[in-house]
Amino acid sequence: MEPDTRYTLVGAVVVALSAALVGFVIWLSAAGAASEYRFYTIHFERQSLEGLQVGGDVNMRGIKVGRVEDYAIERDNINEVNVTIRVQRRTPVSENTTAQVSRNIVTGVARIDLNTPGVPGPELVKVPPGEPYPVIPEGVSELTESANKLARSADVALDHLNALIGPENRRMIEQTLVAMRDFSAGLNARLATVDQASAALLAASQSLQRTSEQVGTSVQGLTASYEPLAGRAEGLLRETRVAVQRYAALAASLDEQSRRLGGTAEGALDVGTRELLSTMRELRRAADAIATAARRLEDPRSAIFGPRPQQLGPGETSQ
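RESULT FIELD:
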């Protein structure tokens, strides 16, 4: 019996030592894990936790520093969700650090971002009463902040709109609208007058165009009539020049003969000579008049339409 009792005692001791060894190993593991991480609690009440899962990422400055350990809805306030996170011990979680929920637009998976604005404060190590871990305050999500800014902008816009459509401004707007209506009516009336004037101007321009065409046709006809007349005038001028030359030669011959007769019979033919000289002077004046007419006939256009400005003498004007 004694050997059996001894073996039983030894077995019990071995089992107890094995259990103690397993417990020691588990304790060491837990202690090691606890030394590498710190646990924090976050109370989310204003942000939606849709897409948040146990094991989800906890990031700071875009770097993963931990994970979501657990979450539960508060029994006394169903709008509040208590989330427990585990972060690396060397993560600088300060008293002014806040937590907010962000989501991947494509997958919809949520994560928790830890933000420390400005200069980091003291390290967050204080555990509030009734809490198992230090509490990180809930921050404001970018979507909520944008919605708040939009709401504030809408409030300011509504205030400005209310100020704009006040009684005094309404009267001014009504007066402005009435003035614009009157101006539009006057402008329409002036446009009708302008249309009438434009139509009259168009009719006048068309009439002037027709008159110009008629004048052009008349000028062409006059030019066609003038060309034969100019030809006949040139022929007459040539004949007149020949006649003048012949008459001048005859006058010169008569003058010469008269001088000869005057020299031989000056005394006897004194009366006849004076009459002949008088006749010669008359012939000279007639020859000068014919020559003047011939010079004028050198330019048939001047003879028909009058002298040109270049042919007028000092103080003369065309009629």
